[in-house]
């Protein structure tokens, strides 16, 4: 078995392949959207902040975009005043990766 130095073990071969592919590849919640479309890449048991930190070790931030995006809350969560503390973790990880941009909230359609 070949092990590459410096690659976080939580990044699966499938995810590394996608990251090495076309930078315009869209990543979206495949299993909830479509059953016959793009291949679903799972990372069971791994949190998004851990994945983001691992990916940022290998993948430079896009300098042509002003900010990262997070998906907006559903209306019922907004009405409840739901806070999303993980968004602050995302901002911290982006700063650690050398970015001075924050995130914007992508409106649900």
UniProtKB/TrEMBL annotation:
Reactions catalysed, as given in the entry: alpha-L-fucose = beta-L-fucose
EC number(s) stated in the UniProt entry for this protein: 5.1.3.29
Matches recorded under InterPro entries: RbsD-like_sf (IPR023750), RbsD/FucU_mutarotase (IPR050443), RbsD_FucU (IPR007721)
Organism: Cyprinus carpio
GO molecular function: fucose binding; L-fucose mutarotase activity
Presence of keyword Disulfide bond: no
Any GO BP: fucose metabolic process
The name this protein goes by in its record: L-fucose mutarotase
UniProtKB keywords: Isomerase
Keyword flag Isomerase: yes
